[in-house]
């Protein structure tokens, strides 16, 4: 199979020929030879790369999650680097001045809360307003193109950079397909002239391991090609702030634990749910930073035996239920007692209804079943935007 950036090169960069080009990218914007799109475009005949745009973590992926980034000049290339995760998250008219086209090549995780797709849509909107063409070099959804899970953004008050668009938590689209949907459905204020350079040979059932492509960490805690699976399975729990999910240990997003929890009892409970395609192994570990730094944590390590069929998003909530039933730890109630806010947990959910249902004692099985109608509605709505 060929990535969008490889198709662009195979076709002689004709989409960009003679144009002044800006590029949104980071270290994940590579081809199968691990050549960066930044360097490929700099050397491409007939392409004039004049500006770089950096998402969260920066163009070199060297900035921690959530840290703001200033615009600057890149010492390596001499090009201006406009930050889209600092003073603004949407390119300004000044940033786009003099550009004919803005190219997007970032590897996302297929999860709504991952900020790169928010950056993409806001950049499309800015390009629509400025009369600049927007080109997406398409890339695989590492979770595959079939999986759709979770709630839509149900409450406008919770629309944010981690829940920007009206898609489920796991939306089953490539970035190019999502761009087509954003542009057509009025989700951005001004549609743009959009060109998607599609992949060749990618199929919807493929997860990252099926592509044969090397994985470059899309962000510091997404180090491997299967990391997006774990990010979806535990990332929501991490937003509560009082559960360790392996961030700060050697297994980011791959663990669920708390101090003084019996790991064997927790694993037995979670495995007892009979969730497809996932096994929970007892684990004791000591995080070296983040939640419970230097404390002994008891919990489980998450293993996916059949990733395509594992209910990723639901694992977050089954883990909360299991901790409450096995360890007597109601982490939501503990957060309330500690005066912690649920802003980020609710924002990534796109609703506070899920949290309120959990706090009211509603079973996770019932909560998950309640997603089905929205998931199926979106599955039908996306059909006109599919490229593969």
* Alpha-carbon Rg, integer: 21 Å
Low-confidence stretches: none
Question: Strand sequence of the main sheet, in spatial order?
Answer: 3-4-2-1-5-6-7
Mean pLDDT, to the nearest integer, reads 97
Number of helices, counting only DSSP H or I runs of 4 residues or more = 14
What's the structural blueprint in terms of helices and strands?
Elements: H1 4-10, E1 20-25, H2 37-43, E2 48-54, E3 72-73, E4 80-83, H3 93-96, E5 101-105, H4 116-130, E6 133-137, H5 175-184, E7 194-197, H6 208-211, H7 227-238, E8 255-258, H8 263-272, E9 278-285, E10 297-304, H9 312-327, H10 331-337, H11 343-349, H12 353-359, H13 364-369, H14 372-381
Parallel strand pairs: 1-2, 1-5, 2-4, 5-6, 6-7
Antiparallel strand pairs: 3-4, 8-10, 9-10
Explain this structure to me?
The chain is α/β, with parallel strands linked by helices and 388 residues long. The protein folds into 2 domains: 4-214, Uncharacterised protein PF07075, DUF1343 (Rossmann fold), CATH 3.40.50.12170; 227-351, Alpha-Beta Complex (Aspartate Aminotransferase, domain 1). Helices cover 31% and strands 14% of the residues. The chain is built from 14 helices and 10 strands. The strands form 2 sheets. It has a 7-stranded mixed beta sheet, with helices on both faces. Strands 8-10-9 form a 3-stranded antiparallel beta sheet. Strand 5, helix 4 (116-130) and strand 6 (133-137) form a beta-alpha-beta unit. Helix 7 (227-238) crosses helix 9 (312-327) and helix 8 (263-272) packs across helix 9. The longest helix has 16 residues, at 312-327. The radius of gyration is 21 Å and the shape is globular. It starts with a helix and ends in a 7-residue tail after the last helix. The model has no long low-confidence stretch (mean pLDDT 97).
